[in-house]
Structures are given as C-alpha cells and as structure tokens.
Amino acid sequence: MSNHLKDLKLKIWRQSGPAAKGHFEDHIMPEISDEASFLEMLDVLNEGLIGENKLPVVFDHDCREGICGTCSLMINGQAHGPERSTATCQLHMRKFKSGDEIVIEPWRASAFPIIKDLMVDRSAFDRIIESGGFISANTGGAPDANLIPIPKSVADAAMDSAQCIGCGACVAACPNGAANLFTAAKIAHLNLLPQGQAERYKRTEAMVETMDEYFGSCTNHGECEAACPKEISIDVIALMNKDYRKSKLKNRKEISRS
Amino acid sequence: MTITLNSKIPAGSINDKWNTYKEDAKLVAPGNKRKFKVIVVGSGLAGASAAATMAELGYQVDVFTFHDSPRRAHSIAAQGGINAAKNYQGDGDSVHRLFYDTIKGGDFRSREANVHRLAEVSVNIIDQMVSQGVPFAREYGGMLDNRSFGGAQVSRTFYARGQTGQQLLLGAYQQLARQIGLGNVRMFNRTELVDVVTIEGRCAGIVTRDLVNGEVVSHSAHAVVMATGGYGNVFYLSTNAMACNVTAAWRAHRNGATFANPCYTQIHPTCIPQSDPTQSKLTLMSESLRNDGRVWVPQNPDETRPASQVPEAERDYILERLYPSYGNLAPRDISSRAAKRSVDSGRGVGPLKNGVYLDFSDAINRLGKDVVEERYGNLFEMYERIAGENPYDMPMRIYPASHYTMGGLWVDYELMTNIPGLYAAGEANFSDHGANRLGASALMQGLADGYFVLPYTIGNYLAPMLNKPIPGTDHPAFKAAELAAQARYQGYVDIKGTRSPDYFHREVGRIIWDYCGMERTQQGLEKALSELPALYEEFQKDLRVTGDTESMNQTLEKAGRVDDFFQLGMLMCRDALEREESCGGHFRAEYQTDEGEATRDDEKFAHVAAWEWTGDPTKSIRHKEELNFEAIHLATRSYK
Amino acid sequence: MAQAVMKRGPVSGTAVERVARKRKPFLIDLYGTAVGKKYVMAITGIGLLGFVFFHMIGNLKMYMGQSDLNQYAHFLEKLLYPILPEKAMLWIFRGGLLAMAVLHIHAAYSLTVLNKQARPVKYQSDRDYQVASFASRTMRYSGVIVLLFIIWHLLDLTFGAGAINTYVGTKDAEGLKDVYGAVAFSLERVPVAIFYVLANIALGTHLFHGVWSLFQSLGWNNPRFNKWRRAVATAFASIIVVGNVSFPIAVLAGVVG
C-alpha cells in the first residue's frame, strides 16, 4: 500500500542557457507518494514553482514508459538513477527514503550541450545515424520478406542490439564521454542481418568516424552497459572494433575496383 | 467557404480501385520533382516514411518535429505487432479477409475503398521493413513468425518482441536519417507547428515556433502533410506520451479542414490504474494477459482483506459471469465497460479503489509458475517495476484507459483534406479504422499511408502546378499568421492568473473522461458541454505561465496545447451527442441491447460526421459523408 | 574534436563530406580515430606484455644462483652472435620495445586529451561508479608510475648511471658482468625495495585492466571464451606481480645475495 516520503532534499542543476553558468538550487519536497514516479515528483515540484511564480525546472521527457528515450537525468551520480535497466521515467520514488538528499544533474558531454536546466541536445546521435545507420533500400521493389531466411539466433542477436532507445545514458555514464555503446549497438543490429551486408563496412567506417568527431574514446570501463536501460552488452563494441578494422582494408579494395 | 466532401473514390470494383487510381494518376517527371517542396509535420511512422519516400523520389522535403529527434515519436511505444495479409501461415488469410476484418472491427463506419487499399499494401510493408533491417521475430527455420490478435481468426500479426512499434519506427527513422544525411531532407527538430496558412483556397504552408528560442517562422510549400498523431491526451490520463497533442491538426481544422468523427476514441481495457493523484500518464499492459488471467472484484464494496484471503464465494468474476462464452477474452470495449461499472459501484480494488483484479493464481496452480513466467515474464516484470507489487503473489490491478483515437482530419481517397494541398496521414486522419481499431492495425496504417499511398497520390496534385509560382513567406497571409501566433503565445504569458496549464489539463480531462469516455449519455454530454465553456473561460482568465516566450518554456508549450484540447473537447462532446447510436468505441448508454451490446443505427448514421470550424467549437457545422458499402454487407457484431 | 555548438535551423547533408574525404595510408588512417588508437594500444600492449613476462621468467634464474643469472644475461648480449655483432640483437629488441612504449604512450596521451575534451565540464556532484574497477579508472596513473619505474630501473640496473648503482659493471668470478650482485646491491636498499614493490603492484593493476581490455579493443569477442577474459587477466597480472615482488623480498630476507 502506498506510503509517503517526507522531506526530500532536492539539489537540482539550474542553467538558463547553453552558455550560462549553472548552479545547484536546493528544494525541499515536503511529501510525495512512494507510488509516484521520479518525473511525477518533478512535475509536483514544478507545479509548486509555478504557484510561487518561479520558473519550473526544464527536463526532457515524453512517453514515460521507458521506450522513447527522451528522458535523461543524472540522479545521485548515476545515469537514470539507482534502479538497473530502468530509464528515469520508470524509476519510482519507492527507491528512495524519507529525508534523502537527491542530486539531479543533466547529462554532461561536449557533444550534448545543455539547452536549459536538465535538458541537453543529443543531436550528435542523429548525426551518427545519418552517416550510415541504415540499410539503403528505397521504397518499392523490396523482395518478399521470407526470401532470405534469417536464423532465429541471428534475428534475436540483432534485436538485442536494436533495442537501443538512444537516450544517451551510455555517454553520460562513461568516464570518457564516449558513445561507443550507442554506435556499436546500431552497427551490430544492421551488420548482423543479411540485409545489412552490402553496406557493412562502408557503414561501420562512416559511423565510427562520425562518432569520433563528437565523442570521447572507449577505455572499457563497462559503465555504459551498467547504465543502459536496455542492458545492451559491451560485446557489441568488440564487434564494432572488429568491423572497423576490416572496413579499413575492405573499403580500400572496393575503391580500387571502381 | 463552402465545404464539399468529395471522397474521390475511383470507379470500378473494390479489388481494382487502387490499381485504377495508380494507372490514372498524373505523374511528375523525375527531373521535375526537385522543383516541388513538400512539408511533412511529424516524424512518426507515417511522417518519417512519407518524408523518406518522397525524398527518395526527388521532392524537396522539410520535416518538422517538436521532439529532439525524429526517433522519439510515440509510434515507438506500440507493443503488439503489425498486421499484414501475407498468409505465411497458410491459414486462409487474404487481402479480402484483412479488409473484411478491419471493416467489421471498425463497426462498419469506415470507408471501404481506403480500407481495401490498406489491406492490399499491407503485404508490401512487411517486405519493405524486412529489407530495411527490422528484426522481426523468426522461427527456427529462419522464416517470419506470426501471432494472432483480437478480431481475427488467422495469425497475421508480425512482431518484434514486445517492441514492434519501436523497431518499425527506428526502421522508418533510419530511412529518414539517410535522406537527411544525403541532403534531400531538411530536418527541423524541437520545432512546433503553430498555424497552417491557406491562400486562395489552397494550403500554402505553415508557421512554426522554435521551442528552443521561441522564434516564429513561416515556411511555404507546394503541399503539406500532417502526420501528427492522435488526440488521446485530451483525457489527460491516457497511454499517450506526455507531449502528444492535437495542436497541428486543430490548427488545420481552424483554417478550414474538416475534423471527422472526433467522438471515436478507443479505450484499452488492460492498463495499470492510476496509483496516486499526481500521476501523469497510464501504462498499457499487453492484452494477451487476459488469455490466462481472470478478472474479478470483491462482492462486498467494503472488502478490506488482501486479495488472496477473499474466499472464492465472495468474489465476482465479472466477465465470466456476464459473458460466459467469451469470458475473460471479451472484446476491448465490453470488458472495459464491465470494469468501469464495477468500479463505479464502489467495488474497485487497490488503495484508490480504481481497478479490478486480473488474477493469475489459477493459471499458476494449473500450469506452474515456470510456464506463466515464460509466457508473461517480461510483462510481470514491467508491472512490478511500475506498481511495486509482485503479480506472482498478488493479482494485478488493471483499469481501462484511452490509447488511440480513430477520429481525425477528414481526408479523401488521396489522403487530402478538404483543403487542396493539405494532407493527413496516420492516426491524424480518420479514414481507415471506422469507429474502432483492431489490434496491430495502427502501425500498418501509418506505414501504408507514408510508404505506399501518399507518395503516389501527392504527385497527382503536384503535377498540374509545375512551373507555376506559389506564394512565398513574404505573402501578407504568412505575416498575419506569424503575428497572430506571436500574439497568441504572448497572450498566455500575459494572463498572469493563478493556475498552471497542467491544472486545466487535468480538469478538462476529467470532464471528458467522465462524460465522453467509455460510456456516454445525452445527459452527461450536455453537462460536459455546459461545464467545458465555463472552464475554458476560467482558463483564459486564470492561466499562469511563468517565464517568457523567447526561451525554452515547457509551460508555455503546454498552455498552447491545452488551449486546443479545450476546443477539441467541446467538439468531441458535440459529435458524441449528435451521433445517436452506439458503434465501436462510441458507446451511448441509451443505445444498447439488453445484454449491453452496442446498437448501431445504420439508417441514420452510416455516415462520417465531418465538422466545419465556425469560430466557436460549440457551434461547429456538421457535414456528412455517406458511407456506401458495396463489397460488404452491414451486419451486427456479435461476441456471444 | 568538433564541439557540438547548438545552432538552430534545419539539419541536412550531414553525411556528404565523408564520401569525398581523402584517404591516408592504411596504418596512419587507422591511427586517425580513437578506435584505431585503441588497436595500437592493444597491439603494443601485447608486445610489452610479452616482454614483461619473459623478463620475469628470466629473472627467476636468480633463485638458481649467481652463475646462472649472469650466464643468462651474457647469453642475451650474445643473442644471434656471431651472425650479428655482439649486443646487436639486444639493441634491436630494445629499439622495438622503445618504439612500442612510445606508441603506447602517445596513443594513451592523445586519447586522454580527447576524453578530457569530450567532457569539459565535469559532473558537479559525486559520481557513483557501478562497475568501473579501480584498475580501469587508474590506468593513466598506474601507467605513469610504471613509466617512472622503468626509467629508474634502466638507470639503476641497465646503465648503472653515476651514483644510482655503483655496483653495475663489476665482474663476477667467471669474468662475466655480475648482474646478480647488482640486483642484490640495489634491492638491499630498503627505500628502493619499497619503490620496487609499489611499482610492481601498479604494474599489476595496469596489466589486469590492460589484458582484459585488449580483447575488447581488438574485437576478440566470442561467447565461448568471453567468460575466461577476466580470469586470464587476473591470472596474468598475479603471476607477474608475485614473480617480480618476490625478488626484493628474497634479497631483503637474505635468500638472494
């Protein structure tokens, strides 16, 4: 049955714009139901701030069922907060205790500039996908869907990595601000499937090099895997590394043929 | 403006109409396509697929989304699957059968020609998505797997675990991303449509507001596609995402596009009930749970014992009692209403007494915990994460919630609204689902519209406009719309009242849910129509938006959306009031059989109600498009 | 690294430039990206691992007595002699090791700079690491300690520079260089022995993360052996640390010397 948490001390990062200097702002949440989700707790806070004629805290959120990847937040030093394999929107207040101090920060990376308060711009992820995270198959003229059988194990492995919701927790959690897990998940999804073979090495080279323009490098801490709300394994990073090495030779051969 | 609703259905037999149309449609030569600019608003399944395909063809495409990335659109949250008449299982499926099931599921309130086309192109969708790398579930032999879904007697639903919507959206997003990378699409993110501009009777473009810096800008184009989703968030608590809204469609409506069948909204029976008053949205649990779960409430409204201690004799298995043949698998609307009546009678369960039990203890005793876990493990986990209770030990609590809206902008066979040059695709239009949508059909419709319908039909409109100038954004109509939009948003800030937009959203949602939700009555609707204008007036006087219009201001965004929900809400109630029959998701308590089944009135209401904006949503004008059933005979749905 | 500056307005044509990009020679091209630099770190790492391993094995000769160790040192100097002049092969090895160390350090340095740029503003609150081990988070420190130790170690025992180790150069009874005596001379000094032990523990943590990490960096990933990667890393690092640390302890305990 529902209980109420009392006197939560919130320390929330406020920043008026990308170039502005930010600071922590302290708030007290006198009472909140433990059934409330973390974002609903922030909704209540914001409602109160509007009541006091103050600016509500800006944060990204949308589906609130853990699939759209819009929500973010570094909660007490953990991306998406203390519950594993859970995005912030599905984190519930029952994970906290009365009197807890909760520190909330935005994702921090030079590729994710802060727009306002806790909201960051994750467009760099889109740039990576635009550079090669697709299979070039124009609409119309696709062959029958069952023409190429795909072993169940392959389809399952592709699906494991295709689950990525693009939230950016991997970058936020990585001590180096690297996006290897995000990039590798998409590369693994497409490179494992037979349909993805034609562009396999072109895709890998392009995506890795676009990633390189924005993000740090992987030093195999494994923090990304621990933070990932979809529990995508860092095994995909190894696959990406292997394909990147091969791409450097295969793409040259291909060019020499043209 | 006089409204003519010409559905432009091609002549010929139902099987030939789409082919006939494609053969007769005017074409734009490949080299000329780049002379045309098309605006796509929304980047969900319908928007992303339409934009990508039109860009592949060579049109200049501008795409707008209010999200940070096109991949966030709410199509992503669909769980179950996507229907297609592939007949891979050899169980007798066919295009005609899918067509028939969809019309019947929609309670005979959809347009035959559109639905048949949807069934025809459904097979292409699967081919297309597989070639784009969507990892659909496979059998061990490597062939695609199918599951069955409500309203069908064949297995025709393709799925990717419980995340079919996500995988399809990411597929369409990837195609869009490719075109952005190639320079064929210009992508505007965090940019919201705030007005639609019509000049000399045709849609000339849109006005947008940059959510990051508040800049209001005009965009002119040869054609505009609205792929902006549904309006289920009018209920406040729904399974829609927080940002889902009606604003784009509503602005089109205010500029002359008729809004069709707003009262057709679908309620999903198995959602997790609201757990505390601050809750902002509801989460849907797959309907498949009802295969093994039993729905019950205690007979005594004052029951305080935990579920497991309530003796068998004091439980009321409502669905098994009321619908003995279908039992716990009774259709969505019937089960939803049964749950609502139990809760209304004070027998609801849970701390807020707002749900019914969905009990798996019998299934666990009969099949063993392992089998139940194998079938529903991920759903049980999801339930536990949200509700904090372990469904293996105590029954789940469920309650119906709004999750899809069949109504939307009226469109003809070409998906064009009654404003030339303005198209609507996906959930934003009204065309394919009639009064009720079948499971796994929303994804199908979004992709059908975007990949296989719009790219053909839009050429038919654009071809005659070749080399003719279109009004630019310096046209006075654009300037006027920009000023109006700026004034509108400044206006919200200037009210300086006492209540937040969320407060008004909750209030308007409560009224709509109570009177225009699962069960509607004349009395209730009239009450809603008297309460809504009063509340709307309060909104206009007592709204408080802090901050300014020149920077990221989520309260301001919300204010604009709630404003439009008010107006839509009034129209919904009008529509529900005037439709004096029960059909699909629209259930009027006055029109039901003794067993509580919906009673249609085909004599008087076998038509689409398309509403014309007059400036006051309570005084909109109702137009009719008669529905002619040539291939199918009208029949009564029966679940006995 | 491109700083993502927030510009408003449409995005388009983001992937076009790459197609026209000029290609550099293969290895330089590969080294141009972070993933490529990790390859270099992993490959040079393997070379250095080999050295560390055989260095430790060779030094175990210490326990067989003065003559054995000195003979072994002499053998190394005469490797491939008389095909090559005396010490030539030794210098080729040294050159190779130096090149690997330089590349390893350069890659590490440039990646560190890149990673600092990737998060110019640190988290303002405490991070709560979930799985990142002490070893992985201290690689750059343990690396620096190992580097300083190597410099000291070379000056101490290889070159016997000036006052650091006055014993170096002394011959034994057989007329060979008394490496055994030099080691004993050095490690009998307690501060040196302590430094030696600490540096080898740093080396151990560096090796532990390095060995497990190189599987990932080189893309050697297979469900069949993935579960062994941590065990291999632990075993390798332990063997090196136990072997190396035994030397100063043996000297101080009087077993050697």
3D architecture notes:
In chain A, a hairpin with a 2-residue loop joins strand 6 and strand 7 (119-120). In chain A, the strands form 2 sheets. Chain A has a 5-stranded mixed beta sheet. Chain A is 37% helix and 14% strand. Chain A is elongated. With 258 residues, chain A is an alpha+beta fold. Chain A folds into 2 domains: 4-115, Roll (Ubiquitin-like (UB roll)); 122-257, Alpha-helical ferredoxin (Fumarate Reductase Iron-sulfur Protein, Chain B, domain 2), CATH 1.10.1060. Chain A has helices at residues 38-51, 123-132, 152-162, 169-173, 180-192, 200-214, 223-227, 235-257, and strands at 4-14, 23-33, 74-75, 78-79, 101-105, 114-116, 119-120. In chain A, helix 3 (152-162) runs antiparallel to helix 5, helix 5 (180-192) runs antiparallel to helix 6 (200-214) and helix 6 (200-214) crosses helix 8. Chain B is an alpha+beta fold and 640 residues long. Among the domains of chain B are: 268-402, Alpha-Beta Complex (Flavocytochrome C3, Chain A, domain 1); 474-602, Methane Monooxygenase Hydroxylase, Chain G, domain 1. Chain B contains 17 helices and 19 strands. Chain B has helices at 17-24, 30-33, 45-57, 95-105, 112-131, 164-182, 247-254, 318-322, 332-347, 361-367, 369-387, 442-462, 476-495, 501-516, 522-542, 554-578, 602-605, and strands spanning 37-41, 60-64, 82-83, 157-158, 185-188, 191-199, 202-210, 216-220, 223-226, 259-260, 265-271, 294-298, 315-316, 356-359, 396-405, 408-409, 422-424, 607-612, 621-626. In chain B, the strands form 5 sheets. Chain B has a 5-stranded parallel beta sheet, sandwiched between helices. In chain B, strand 18 and strand 19 form a beta hairpin. Chain B is globular and about 75 Å long. Chain B starts with 16 loop residues before the first helix and ends in a 14-residue tail after the last strand. The model of chain B has no long low-confidence stretch (mean pLDDT 94). Chain C has a single domain, classed as 3 helical TM bundles of succinate and fumarate reductases (Up-down Bundle), CATH 1.20.1300. The mean pLDDT of chain C is 92. In chain C, helix 9 (190-217) runs antiparallel to helix 10. Chain C has 257 residues and is mostly helical. The interface between A and C is large, with 64 and 56 residues.
